[in-house]
Automatic annotation (TrEMBL):
The chain crosses the membrane at residues 20-41, 47-67, 108-141, 161-187. InterPro entries: HATPase_C_sf, Sensor_HK_TwoCompSys, Sig_transdc_His_kin_sub3_dim/P. It comes from Streptomyces macrolidinus. Residues 215-279 form the Signal transduction histidine kinase subgroup 3 dimerisation and phosphoacceptor domain. This is histidine kinase. It is an enzyme of class 2 (transferase). Residues 421-435 have a biased composition (Basic and acidic residues). It catalyses: ATP + protein L-histidine = ADP + protein N-phospho-L-histidine. Its EC number is 2.7.13.3. One of its GO terms (molecular function) is kinase activity. Keywords: ATP-binding, Kinase, Membrane, Nucleotide-binding, Phosphoprotein, Transferase, Transmembrane, Transmembrane helix, Two-component regulatory system. Residues 416-442 are annotated as: Disordered.
């Protein structure tokens, strides 16, 4: 029995019934305006007591509701009510006001349908239960038959009086069935009328793409900053431990480099994580650039024992801030990649070249490819360093190549010093990472 009555009186049906009654409440102001219009046209003051005039007033009210539906809060409020009361999956509904003509038309259709069905069900809810209650109890209270003799003369017959409770109960069931059917109809129409249109899906896709771009940028910053710092600190500590007794001066330099590296990395980490804080408060440490910290980067890397040869044929002070910042990260990642293959002693020669030619900044980082034991801080299988470099270069309109060339591992990046040429940048055939590039990533 409960299974049969659940679709009519279950919690889903009850909540949808409440949603319909809310629609009837929203329809009431329009209905009152409709009674004024119908009364003025008919020249009658008995609109509220004449059923045909009430129907005419309701018919006038629905177009008035449709005309006011473009109000910006109509769709957000309707969607909130549907999600809370109709049991509709929220992912199938649009957020925010309707902006296009098609979306406004669908919203108007929903608003009119909700108020129309809500007004009908609300009227039935107000009128049928009292009448049904009278029918159910009238056999027990004969005084009710005397009071309603003018309306219930048929109940004076014994057979009609006996069937009155059944008729009253059936009225309540019919009312519940109408409410459940109208509620199910609204729940079925909600995704079509309140769901996202092409413009909403495009806006959501753009928002997701922007969020993904921010996440990828943060991941690159964390990888390049923290990854390089950990690799350098590990090699510096390893080198200092080996010469602790024989070369105290080198140990002091290594410890000073470790202190400087960790302090700067903590500041950069705070700046990156500041973007993720709830209050969106940016960190205090500015992003490093070639002009600000290239010498410090080279000094801290040399403290691990690496032999770095640098050739600079560009005025780093004249570079655009974005190019200078991304070029710094590319050099940093190139050094980290070389340190991975430094071996246990960390004694690897590294060549860094920065050249400005034909409006482009060419960055080259080379290190030998002789077989050597893995560095203490190296991670098995590599990481995502070269992929991050390729992403940075592509977003600036540059190209990247990484792989073995004449017995050395060469990372070559070219960046246009005027920024990207288009929203997606450009990438030549040699700029795509192949299997060689993946093997050398950190």
């Amino acid at each position: 029995m409960k299974r049969l009555l659940r679709p009519l009186f279950g919690h889903v049906a009850r909540r949808r019934w409440v949603h319909l009654i809310l629609g009837g409440a929203l329809a009431m102001p329009y209905f009152l305006v409709g009674t004024v219009i119908v009364g003025a046209v008919q020249g009658s003051e008995d609109v509220f007591t004449t059923f045909p005039l009430q129907l005419a007033s309701f018919a006038v009210a629905l177009p008035l509701a449709a005309l006011t539906s473009p109000f910006p809060l109509t769709r957000p409020m309707s969607v909130a009510a549907v999600r809370a009361l109709c049991g509709v999956d929220g992912d199938g509904l649009a957020d925010g006001p309707a902006r296009t003509r098609a979306a406004k038309g669908r919203c108007a259709a929903w608003f009119t349908l909700h108020l129309g069905l809500g007004g009908i069900v609300s009227g039935m809810t107000l009128s049928l239960p009292p009448f049904a209650a009278v029918l159910i109890v009238i056999p027990v209270f004969p005084g009710l038959r005397d009071m309603r003799r003018d309306l219930l003369q048929v109940l004076q017959e014994p057979w009609a009086l006996a069937l009155a409770p059944v008729a009253g109960a059936m009225m309540l069931v019919v009312l519940a069935a109408c409410a459940a059917g109208c509620g199910a109809l609204l729940a079925r129409c909600a995704p079509a009328l309140l769901g996202p249109g092409p413009e909403d899906r495009l806006a959501a896709a753009e928002a997701r793409a922007a969020d993904l771009a921010v996440r990828n940028r943060l991941a690159r910053e964390l990888h390049d900053s923290v990854g390089h710092a950990l690799s350098a600190v590990t090699l510096q500590a390893s080198a200092a431990r080996r010469v602790l007794d024989s070369d105290p001066e080198f140990v002091r330099e290594a410890l000073a480099a470790i202190e400087d590296t960790t302090r700067r990395t903590v500041g950069e980490l705070d700046a990156v994580l500041g973007v993720l804080r709830a209050d969106d408060t940016p960190g205090k440490a500015p992003a490093p650039t070639l002009a600000a910290d290239l010498d410090g980067l080279l000094r801290r890397t040399r403290a691990s024992g690496a032999h770095i040869t640098v050739g600079i044929e560009v005025d780093s002070e004249s570079l655009p801030p974005m190019i200078s910042r991304e070029a710094y990260r590319i050099v940093q990642e190139g050094l980290s990649n070389a340190l991975k293959h430094a071996g246990a002693g960390g004694q690897v020669p590294i060549t860094v070249q920065l050249v400005a030619a034909e409006g482009q900044l060419e960055i080259t980082v080379e290190n030998p490819m002789e077989a050597a034991p893995a560095a203490p801080g190296a991670r098995p299988g590599g990481g995502h360093g070269l992929r991050g470099i390729a992403d940075r270069a592509r977003l600036l309109g540059g190209i990247t190549h990484a792989g073995p060339v004449d017995g050395v591992w060469r990372l070559s990046v070219r960046l246009p010093m005027k920024g990207p040429e288009g929203p997606e940048g450009r990438e030549g055939p040699e700029g795509r990472e192949g299997p060689e590039g993946s093997e050398g990533s950190v």
